[in-house]
Amino acid sequence: MKKFGTAIILAGGKSSRMGFDKQFLKINNKRLIDMMIEKLKKEFEEIIIVTNKPKEYRGYGQKILTDIIKNAGPLAGIYTGLKEAKFEYAFVIACDMPNIDIDYINYMKEIIDKYKVDVCITKVNGNIEPFHGFYSKKITESIREHLETEKRDIKSLVKKLNTYYIEEKLVKRYSPSLDIFKNLNTKKDLEHFNEKLGGKSSC
Ligand SMILES: Nc1nc2c(ncn2[C@@H]2O[C@H](COP(=O)(O)OP(=O)(O)OP(=O)(O)O)[C@@H](O)[C@H]2O)c(=O)[nH]1
């Protein structure tokens, strides 16, 4: 099957709720981000990691970037990734999301191919899930302008763009418990994740 274009992994956050840098989180002694790369590599032509610790990725075969606009949150990571992406669309995911569902990514990609929108994301309970979505390279400048207005949230940006919102009932066909949007923000999140998988996490 034909591979998708670019996947961007955001790994430049503060991890203040977790208390240690989430991009180095290990599950059963293996870095979660490495497991994500392995999975995404099979499906995407290009993987970009936008990180605040580029030295830690020495020797990686992926494109390793740092934020062009500093201290501006995840949207700035998307900005840098899109700017350097080789392909027209990029799938964006956070470095702390262990449940990647390729079938759902495929479904999103079909929407992109059909409607050629700027952004394709899911709405759950009225809220958007920005770190499991597709973004067009075309919106790079819109992101920069949005960040200049001091507004850094993705929600108000995508409202201004041609955005396709996938409904909750549709994503539930792929991920009934909506696990694909689960990210590990706190030590409690880790505990729950470990209990579920019988795994062991460490930093
Ligand atoms: N490149 C880049 N990624 C970011 C930035 N801020 C957050 N992220 C990433 O965006 C995703 C979601 O971030 P959050 O978990 O909400 O924020 P965080 O700063 O990592 O964690 P908290 O300090 O606990 O809020 C994670 O993958 C982060 O690594 C940033 O300024 N630049």
From TrEMBL:
Localization: Cytoplasm
GO molecular function: GTP binding; metal ion binding; molybdenum cofactor guanylyltransferase activity
Cofactor(s) the record lists: Mg(2+)
Classification via InterPro entries: MobA-like_NTP_Trfase, Molybde_CF_guanTrfase, Nucleotide-diphossugar_trans
Matching SUPFAM superfamilies: Nucleotide-diphospho-sugar transferases (SSF53448)
Function: Transfers a GMP moiety from GTP to Mo-molybdopterin (Mo-MPT) cofactor (Moco or molybdenum cofactor) to form Mo-molybdopterin guanine dinucleotide (Mo-MGD) cofactor.
Protein name per the record: Probable molybdenum cofactor guanylyltransferase
Gene label: mobA
